[in-house]
Specification:
- It is a single chain.
- By secondary structure, the chain is mostly helical.
- It has seven helices and no strands.
- The longest helix is centred in the last third of the chain and has 19 residues.
């Protein structure tokens, strides 16, 4: 039974890029009275829905929460965060701060992690903007 649970939990982290845009990052249960955590637990799903519709501010929120955890409301996933920063870079509305956040989030990752983030971003850009991402990603 333990092996089965371990296999299922590991399998959840190895999702194909096409499926990556379809699943929601894991929202954590907040400790009682943790108002910031409770706020982000409530707001993150809405931000994710808006991000998938192309809302720039929501995309920034999703990328930030995936890299910081948003007061322990969201499970940290730096690869997913990097992917969202690449989506933002391809949005046509990115700022200098967005470029800096992309570099700070993505550069410390391994080559395999960067490849996974690029694959996730490629699928998200196709889904959100109906086009391929730009050839350069500034990582």
């Amino acid at each position: 039974m333990l092996k089965l649970l371990l296999a299922l939990s590991i399998g959840a982290f190895f999702v194909s890029p096409l499926q990556a845009g379809e699943i929601q990052p894991v929202i954590k249960a907040c400790q009682s009275g943790a108002k910031h955590c409770e706020r982000w637990t409530a707001e993150f799903p809405t931000a994710l829905q808006l991000a998938l519709k192309g809302n720039h501010a929501a995309q920034q929120t999703v990328a930030f929460c995936l890299s910081s955890g948003c007061h322990d409301a969201v499970v940290i996933d730096r690869v997913a965060s990097c992917g969202w920063h690449l989506v933002i870079a391809n949005s046509g509305a990115s700022t200098v701060l967005d470029a800096s956040n992309l570099r700070n989030t993505c550069r410390p990752m391994t080559s395999a992690q960067k490849d996974e983030a690029r694959a996730n971003a490629r699928e998200l850009v196709r889904k959100i903007y109906n086009r391929d991402p730009a050839a350069t990603d500034q990582m």
